[in-house]
Write a structure and sequence with these properties.
The protein is mainly alpha-helical. It contains eleven helices and three strands. It has helices at 2-8, 21-51, 58-83, 93-126, 131-134, 137-163, 180-184, 192-224, 230-259, 264-291, 294-315; strands spanning 11-14, 89-92, 172-173. The longest helix has 34 residues, at 93-126. One of its GO terms (molecular function) is olfactory receptor activity.
Length: 316
Amino acid sequence: MEEFNRTLLNDFILMGITDHPWLQKFLFSFVLLFYLLDICGNLTIVSLVVRDPSLQSPIYFLLANLSFVDMLFSSVTVPKMMVGFFLENTISVKGCITQMFFFHVLGCIEGVLLAVMGYDRYVAVCHPLQYIIIMGRSTCIQLVLASWFTGVTYSLFNSIMTSQLPFCNNRKVKHFLCDVKPVMKLACKDIHVNELTVALVSGFLSIIDFSLTMLSYVYIITHVLKIRSSEGRSKIFSTCSSHLILVFLFFGTAMCTYLGPTSETSLEKDKIAAILFTVITPTLNPIIYTLRNKEVRNSVRKLVKRSNILRILLAK
């Protein structure tokens, strides 16, 4: 009978963020707005980098990849989350594992890309004369491929480990997405080893990425302090501080989510953390990394000007 009950379970129910109707409507509008800004902003960055020859440098190649990952990262979770504000949000077990796989693939890739971009800024600031040689196109492509390889390997580990667990009659995932910790809590067997493994592997990757990123910025700050020009120092510090806000936001929420113990209280906190790195951070990335950049603003102006000229020609 126990084995029959285990095979009978073929879907889960995602519990969402809140049961209050007024708050559901507010959060739906809030999430929809940020999701649209996320897609429009990141799609603009990718389009500009692909089309504008003046943006064919290593940093913009990396930024375009980050924007592409951000769009996918949000799209894996946000549409399903918005459904849950008004309807019972069911998902098949296979669909849940698939969402988990892509969620962790893209999240891990973003973490590695942030570390790579920190290294890119270190080379640009501390070794400007060697920048083109060190950060050549082949090197950038290899670093991006390495981030995808790391993400796929890490996510396969989580997904396969979770898919092997027996799930009995408890269908309610206490989250708005199929993340590894709340899904494992539904297993009808002892999961202490699984939880410890997830914490060790996720923690190791997060700490390594965060440490490498911070190391790059420590070298940058040390180098900048030697610059005599106050204008030059303030410009680089302004850029670095903006980047570091996103680094702390992304890695801080990730490490709090996967390094902490799994409990009812921690799962509620994980929902808030997940909103930050699936909704807020992908929207802020194009604003902080590129839309404040002079070269990108010029590229946007050229694109708008070309669009106006095209409109005039079509009107004639």
